[in-house]
Amino acid sequence: MTQTVSDTEKLDFKKILPVLVIILVDLIGLSIIVPLMPLYAARFGANAFTIGLLGATYPFMQFIGAPILGRLSDRFGRRPVLLVSQLGTFSGFILLGFANMLPLLFLSRIIDGLSGANLSTAQAVITDVTSEKTRTQGLGLIGAAFGMGFILGPIIAFAVLLATGESYQAVAFTAAAFSLASVTLTFFWLPETYNPEVGTIRTRGPFTFEAMKRALGHPSIGILLILMFAQQLAFGGYEQMFSLFALNRLGMGALDTSGLFVLAGLFIVIVQGGFIGRLSKKYSDRWLVMLGLSTLAVGLLLTATTPQIPVPWYDRAKIEAEMQGKASTQTINVELPSQEHNGWLGIIWILVASFPAALGGAVLHPAINSLITKSVSKDEVGGILGVSAGFYSAANAITPLFFGALFQWFGAPVPFLAGGALLAVLYFIAVRTVK
Length: 435
Description:
The protein is mainly α.
């Protein structure tokens, strides 16, 4: 009996290893292309608002498709739904590689978004093969695989761009290759884990507007959900518009931007993997929320004030050729800096600004969710996390449109000024209201 209890308290890595490897490979494919999408669209003459609309397409389609695929996985099993989802992602990347006009970029993101249940289905697999005592650890390892994928992806994108003379098509096909590898691993390595006779625990209830309204009325949770939405609105806008901002202020192309994303990704994983737990134990989740709000606000405001001094290696003619692309006859709609006053100040400034921004983005999401779960009873945790995920997804869909419009109509620094100002105001509100 003692041996049985001991076994249930230990995570069986052999059972979860396949899904961890699969989700890592899958996310490498996704993160290879995501940082380049704004520049990819700019090659076909898209302005900042259209690029924002393109950025909103994937999370909006995923918001529609993921719950449907999740219900299908309860009916037909995890493995077939995961395969369908991965094949949709693979098809989207292939279409992206062959795209020679802006509508095809939108179509590729629609296909990928509608089939984008990879992560949620992987979480269901972990739920199937873990006990209540090991489930949190198992789901945490998915988060680690997620973070590693978003580090390795930009590194691979950087290498492909360097090896192919900055061919965006080559990056898209590389992402498709990783997606195909993920399909192959799922088909040959991942067993079916769902047993309809046993059933599984729903870790997240369905998101509805009525659930959102009720949660917002909760005395201690309402402000936390507002903070969840606002921090993702601001940090998501930072991620979505950063490529165009660096292009406008510093004359940085896809290769340079990929390098900055790698640095930011490394910093975020170090913070999430090594420091959040220690800081939470030493101080508190509330302290982490205040730290995240203040540092992200400072990082965004510093980014907004980046001087328009292009990097020393800036070559305007080369960037124009990169943005133009061989397949497009349109000109880009992002103003490039003059080549008269190159220097190091701009790149040093934006690097300094990226550290508080990345720190805030790394600590806020887990700290807010931790506070949310501690504000309700155990039997409400799954449902309230589902509502939190709904706010997070809604912010991801709205962010590209909102910040794309600000970028297009009011100038490159305005989205970052708006995000920083919003978080600064919410910081002072949170000091008084978050318990």
